[in-house]
Design a protein that fits this description.
112 residues; mainly alpha; 4 helices; 0% strand
């Protein structure tokens, strides 16, 4: 068993691309811990805005890894949809200006 472990470690090669890929996978997975913590605090299921930012960062790092290091079409195709959905949701949360119908209506007599 120890010999097998040593054989695995001898073949383990770490480079900047693998670090980027591993960090992306860790971020993408940890976003669920952030969501679970926010839901626990709220007492109901919620998706905090930071969830989408973590999703973008993690999936972008994985896209870089699969595109430039692995050159893996399966990894790219698997990672691209979550990146696009996360970017869209982040745009809805952070970048989209509210429409006049979304803004609270001004009440008469509130002119200061």
């Amino acid at each position: 068993m120890v010999e097998m472990f040593h054989q695995v470690l001898e073949r383990f090669e770490l480079n900047i691309w693998k670090v980027i890929g591993l960090m992306g996978a860790a971020l993408f997975g940890c976003r669920w811990l952030v969501q679970a913590a926010a839901s626990r605090r709220a007492g109901r299921s919620v998706v905090p805005p930071v969830f989408w930012l973590i999703s973008i960062a993690g999936s972008l790092m994985q896209l870089l890894y699969f595109t430039f290091y692995r050159v893996d079409s399966v990894g790219i195709i698997n990672t691209l949809p979550p990146f696009l959905v996360s970017a869209y949701n982040a745009w809805l949360v952070f970048g989209k200006k509210p429409r006049s119908s979304d803004a609270p209506a001004a009440r008469a007599g509130d002119d200061d």
